[in-house]
Design goal:
Layout: E1 5-10, H1 20-28, E2 37-43, H2 46-52, E3 59-65, E4 75-79, H3 96-107, E5 114-120, H4 138-160
Parallel strand pairs: 1-2, 1-3, 3-5
Antiparallel strand pairs: 4-5
Length: about 190
């Protein structure tokens, strides 16, 4: 059986650097991943992503922005934690922790897939949804191509062994607590 893998772009295209996930998915149109990988832009449709997490994928890679305290445009590969029982599932919105909690709630006893987040440090994120600001900042726009390169390195390793921890791909930049993971072309700054 061929492992099933989903690469999911998340973010709001009208909120500056929050559009990073959708922009990476658009860039993958020009450099497609292998056919056994589904690539989809979920935007801000958290409910759709929650249901997709229950579609039997072995691994899901979310592409998003995340404030981690690094220089804007820095890419990090983060091992998602299992949903915390204290996180209230939310059917509207795209907070990844709440989407995972919603998927766990909807799937009851179904196991969730292995979830990784390919995150980019944002430079510009508006304070609220009322502050529409389309377009990526320069450092985040420049990170889109590096994210596509990283996915082309990461995906073959995940397809070869979906149960394995995120593979070490270069100099460790950041990792989840249990499994170190890094991206090619990144170095500690």
């Amino acid at each position: 059986m061929t492992p099933r893998l989903l690469v999911a772009g998340v973010g709001n295209i009208f909120l500056a650097d929050d559009a990073f996930g959708p922009e990476v998915i658009r860039a993958l149109d020009r450099r497609p991943l292998p056919p056994e990988v589904r690539v989809h832009d979920y935007g801000i449709r958290g409910m759709d992503l929650a249901y997709a997490l229950l579609d039997g994928y072995d691994t899901v890679v979310l592409v998003d922005t995340a404030r981690r305290g690094h220089r804007p445009g820095t890419l990090c590969l983060i091992e998602a934690e299992p949903p915390d029982a204290g996180v209230v599932p939310e059917a509207h919105g795209m907070d990844p922790a709440k989407v995972l909690a919603l998927a766990a709630h909807l799937g009851e006893d179904e196991p969730l897939p292995h979830v990784l987040v390919l995150a980019c440090e944002p430079e510009v994120l508006p304070a609220g949804d009322e502050d529409l600001l389309p377009g990526l900042s320069t450092p985040v726009r420049e990170a889109v191509g590096r994210a596509v390169d990283a996915l082309h390195t990461l995906i073959p390793a995940l397809l070869a062994d979906p149960a394995a921890a995120a593979p070490p791909l270069g100099h460790p930049m950041e990792s989840g607590p249990a499994h170190p993971a890094a991206l090619p072309g990144t170095a500690a700054r």
